[in-house]
Design a protein that fits this description.
Length: about 90
């Protein structure tokens, strides 16, 4: 599912994603794109000490072919709903 965002990133060099994180899942997977365009992603990490955020960044980096250092949480670091900036 992240393929269309990977192409968008390649074309624009910068994208923003709204992501709803479901922490503590059995494995890290894309769940769905919600009606408002928010991506729902389950992560296999607990929401403490930034572990879920790190797992999300790792997943996005792999799925989008970006470096982990290119992915920034703009808002919502301590929330389920996050705004993520990815640049190359």
């Amino acid at each position: 599912m992240l393929e269309k965002y990977s192409k968008n990133l390649a074309d624009n060099k910068e994208i923003y994603l709204r992501i709803k994180v479901l922490a503590g899942a059995g494995k890290t997977v894309f769940v769905e794109e919600m009606a408002d365009g928010t991506l729902k992603i389950a992560v296999a990490a607990v929401p403490e000490k930034g572990k879920a955020n790190l797992e999300l960044i790792k997943y996005l980096a792999k799925g989008l072919g970006a470096a982990k250092s290119d992915i920034k949480i703009i808002s919502g670091a301590g929330e389920r709903l996050k705004l993520i900036k990815i640049s190359r």
